[in-house]
Specification:
This protein has 5 helices and 7 strands. By secondary structure, it is of the alpha/beta class. The longest helix is centred in the middle third of the chain and has 20 residues. About 5% of the residues have low confidence.
Length: about 150
């Protein structure tokens, strides 16, 4: 099973999505594809952000490898929105499941920044699992987490 995680190291919901993906990879003997989407850099001042994203992805890959999970990380820098990047990557790589974190945004926030999760849910051709950013606690099903 190929599992894609839309990952942003600055987001609590992304960290929760990564943890859930780890559990799914173990339970279903899957391979993780951890994807961070960034807009194409236009100036040299954007380089530190790219380096930061690469470092965060490297750390995730090391963490998953230590847990015995096959993990591939991908930093996508294309002329697509983040949602389009995730869906396109999933289609190009025959992904079986996408896991994405969701966070509450205002209407203006959604209008200005868009909603990666909404786009992925509506456009992906494979199942999409969402997880909130709230604190989680252990659950008896597959050792997964449920909301308090």
């Amino acid at each position: 099973m190929k599992i894609l995680v839309a990952y942003n190291s600055q987001s609590k919901s992304s960290e929760n999505a990564l943890e859930l993906a780890k559990q799914h990879a173990i339970a279903f003997q899957g391979t993780l594809h951890v994807v961070t989407s960034a807009q194409r850099t236009k100036t040299e001042k954007d380089i530190p952000h790219v380096e930061e994203a690469e470092k965060a992805l490297w750390e995730v890959e090391q963490q998953m490898n230590q847990a015995g999970i096959t993990c591939h990380t991908h930093l996508l820098i294309r002329q697509l929105s983040r949602g389009e990047d995730v869906v396109t990557f999933a289609e190009e790589n025959d992904i079986d499941e996408i896991i994405v974190g969701v966070e509450k945004k205002s209407r203006v926030g959604k209008f200005v920044m868009g909603s990666l999760a909404q786009y992925v849910i509506l456009q992906a051709s494979c199942p999409v699992v969402t997880i909130k950013s709230e604190a989680t606690k252990p659950d008896i099903f597959l050792g997964s987490r449920s909301f308090m």
